[in-house]
Amino acid sequence: MSALSRGNSRLRLLLGQAGLSGSELARAVNRLGLENGLELHYQRASVGQWLAGTRPRRPVPELIAEALSRRLGRRVTVEEAGLTPPGPAGPRADGSESYRLAAVEELLGSGRRRGGAAVREAERVGARHVRCLDRMTAHFSRTDHLVGSGHSVGALTGFFAVTVRGWLAAPASPAVQRGLAAAGARLAYLGGFLHVDQRRHGPAQQWYRLAVELAEEAGDPRTLSAAYRALSVQAHQLGHRAQAARLAERAVVLGTGQDPSMLAFLYGQRALTLAADGRRREVFRVMGQAERHLDWATGPAAAGPAATVVGAYHPAALAHQRGELRYQLGDLPGAVTELALSDRLRPAAERRSRALVLARTGELLLAAGAVDGACAAWQQFVELGAGLASRRLDHAYAGMRTALARHRGSDRTALLSALRSEDWPRSPEPL
User: Fold this and answer.
1) Residue 431 has pLDDT above 80, yes or no
2) pLDDT tens-digit readout, 80-130
3) Helical H runs in 277-314?
4) What is the rounded average pLDDT of the residues 295-302?
5) What is the pLDDT of residue 251?
6) Partner residues linked to 55 by β-bridges
7) For residue 16, is pLDDT > 50?
8) What span, in angstroms and rounded, lies between the C-alpha atoms of 279 and 222?
9) 146-149 contacts: CB < 8 A, separation 24 or more?
10) Residues 386/355, Cβ–Cβ less than 8 Å
């Protein structure tokens, strides 16, 4: 940490405008830390230090600004809060961006912001560059499926920054420019997913927004609607239910005319956001649309690389969403039944997805008092998930151990409680 020569009057003024005490701000920052995969334990004394002029390390200044933004209903910058770090300003590549609700509102409104243009290359790009970009996207996707996002997220980020930005800015025919923008949108969509899997929601949000912008530039409604859906999923997981519902609705509108599998993909998420609001009649109508469209789908979601990266959907994914939907509506037995179906239908190659479904199944079974059933699900989770570099799996494992510590007494519980933390290899830090 670094300290100012005098107190932070800007932060003190904003606290007063927001009507927040030091303890309340500390709790808000801790909650935002959880949104971004960080376990923070700030208390009132920490806020006192910030008011006295101490600057916390990144990304905490961004979290403080976001907490104040949400309270005041307008954007508060790090600079306005008097928390600008010393040294020259410039773009960051350290993944310290925080998740911002204002960014969602910009997309839902008319405001869009595109980063500065990259330096234009002298070489003219062509169709071979588009093919290369699609093949690299497919490679990153396969790597993620095989060993987890921790082994591919850094490489994808570097490839985009060093190579793709230059291609997008280089001279090209209109057709090639559209092709590169569409392929770049698919890569950005995958980049968002990899960051979500690493529980880095700030960078993930930025990647999804980039996918939106490139898909709009390319005139690619498939990736555009999928990116809005991904933003909805992210907002829903972070507890921002109103924004999640609006994003899901936008995704459905943008996806009009897409193939049945893609429409099922979009309607399923829309139904889940309606369930979060308790809108039971609309929930089952919209989920029925998802089910009918998936029944009508007779083959891959689409031809080409988009089929495996953007909008891949199948009965196991639909059953998973139905399970979460029933849980939102208070139907715990129904949720468990749907998750069990999702587990049975899940393709063998989707180890991480199946492991996450099993972790959730164990959580719900424990809530229903079925301790042995929960432990059986969690044992399968451990067997499937070990070795995959995924912070979502790490988080699920930590939750399992916490839950087991409160429920002892059965042989299966004792067996799983004996697992030591070193039995679960944590996801490596992305390069």
Assistant:
1) no
2) 888 886 543 333 444 557 777 777 767 666 444 444 344 444 468 899 999
3) 280-296, 306-309
4) 65
5) 97
6) 2
7) yes
8) 27
9) 147/387, 147/388, 147/389, 148/197, 148/352, 148/388, 148/389, 148/390, 148/393, 148/427, 149/193, 149/194, 149/195, 149/197, 149/198, 149/389, 149/390, 149/427, 149/430
10) no
Tell how far CA 277 is from the center of its chain.
Answer: 21
- SS3 of the chain: helix, strand, coil, percent, to 5: 70, 0, 30
The amino acid at 88: P
Q: Tokens in use for 142?
A: 């396969």
Q: Specify the residue for token string 């405008």.
A: 17
pLDDT at 11 over 90: no
Q: Which residues contact 179 (CB under 8 A, 6 or more apart)?
A: 127, 130, 218
This prediction's pTM: 0.79
Structure tokens at 300: 């891959």
CA angle at residue 31 from 28 to 35, to 5 degrees? Answer: 135
Query: Would you give the end-to-end CA distance of the chain in angstroms?
Result: 24
Q: Which two tokens stand for residue 172?
A: 């090209």
Other C-beta atoms lying within 10 Å of the C-beta of residue 407? 14
Are 307 and 258 spatial neighbours (Cβ–Cβ below 8 Å)?
no
